[in-house]
Design brief:
Length: about 250
C-alpha cells in the first residue's frame, strides 16, 4: 500500500516538473508556451481567410484578357450585367474595337466596385453601360441606382476626362414586366443625372421602346425563352438605335 502511494507521488512530481521545465524554457526563449493544435479549428481559421467574392473569377478573367490587348485609343468598352455579357459584340460591331467587360447578374453597385479594374485601365474612347435591371429586381430604389451611377460618372470625370459615356436605360422584359413602373422611374432619374452633367461626353439612351410591340407590350421575338434576356433580333434592334449614337462626334 505504502509503495503504491510512493509510486503515484513520484509520477505526479515528474509530470509537474516536466511541465515547469517546458514553461520555463518557453519563457527563457521569448516564445509563448507550446499548446496542442486543434486540427478542426486550424482548418476553420484558414478557410475564413479565403475570399468569398463571387465576382472575382469574372473580374480576373476580364483583367487577363485586357492585359493581352495592344495599346489603343479607339476602344469601346461595354460593361454591366448579363445583357452586356451575353451580347455578341464582335458580330454586332465588326468594324470597331469593342471589349465586353460585362459580368452577368451584377448590379450598378458592382460596376462601381470594379470600375477601377475593368474600365479605367482600358482607357476607352467610349464606355457603354447597362445595369439597373437586377437592382430593381433586388428591390433597390431608383434613387439608389441613380446614386451608384453618379459614382461612375464621378470616376470618369476624375480618371478618364476624355472618355464618353453612353448609358442605356433599364429595359422592359416579359419576365419582369411587373416592375415596369419602377424601371420607367429609374430611367427618368438616370436621364436627369446625365442631363445635369451638361456635357456632350455623357448621353442617356432608352432602348426599351425598340423591344415593345405595337400594343406597348414586350415583343416575344425580342427575347429568348427565359423572357428576360435578348434574342439576336433584340440585340439587332439595339444596335440599330445605338450605333448612330456611338458614332456621333463630340467636342468638350
Amino acid at each position: 500500500m505504502t509503495q503504491s502511494i510512493i509510486r503515484r507521488s513520484l509520477v505526479r512530481n515528474f509530470v509537474l516538473a516536466s511541465g515547469c521545465w517546458i514553461l520555463c524554457a518557453s519563457l527563457l526563449s521569448g516564445q509563448a508556451p507550446i499548446a496542442p493544435v486543434k486540427e478542426k479549428e486550424s482548418v476553420k481559421e484558414s478557410t475564413a481567410n479565403v475570399s468569398t467574392d463571387k465576382w472575382e473569377p469574372a473580374i480576373a478573367k476580364i483583367e487577363a484578357n485586357l492585359a493581352k490587348q495592344k495599346p489603343a485609343t479607339d476602344r469601346w468598352v461595354f460593361t454591366g450585367s448579363s445583357s452586356i455579357t451575353k451580347w455578341k459584340l464582335d458580330k454586332s460591331f465588326p468594324k470597331y474595337n469593342v471589349l465586353n467587360h460585362g459580368f452577368g447578374g451584377s448590379q450598378m453597385s458592382d460596376v462601381v466596385k470594379y470600375f477601377d479594374r475593368i474600365v479605367t485601365p482600358a482607357k476607352p474612347q467610349i464606355v457603354v453601360l447597362y445595369s439597373g435591371d437586377n437592382d430593381i429586381n433586388a428591390k433597390k430604389t431608383p434613387e439608389q441606382i441613380t446614386d451608384d451611377t453618379r459614382k461612375i460618372v464621378e470616376k470618369l470625370k476624375r480618371d478618364l476626362p476624355e472618355t464618353r459615356l453612353v448609358l442605356i436605360g433599364v429595359k422592359p422584359s416579359i419576365k419582369r414586366w411587373s416592375l415596369r413602373d419602377k424601371q420607367i422611374e429609374t430611367n427618368k432619374q438616370l436621364a436627369k443625372l446625365i442631363e445635369d452633367q451638361k456635357s456632350p461626353l455623357y448621353e442617356f439612351i432608352d432602348l426599351g421602346p425598340a423591344l415593345l410591340d405595337n400594343e406597348g407590350q414586350p415583343d416575344k421575338a425580342m427575347f429568348v425563352e427565359d423572357g428576360l434576356h435578348l434574342s439576336d433580333t433584340g440585340y439587332a434592334k439595339w444596335v440599330e438605335k445605338l450605333l448612330p449614337v456611338l458614332l456621333k462626334t463630340t467636342s468638350k
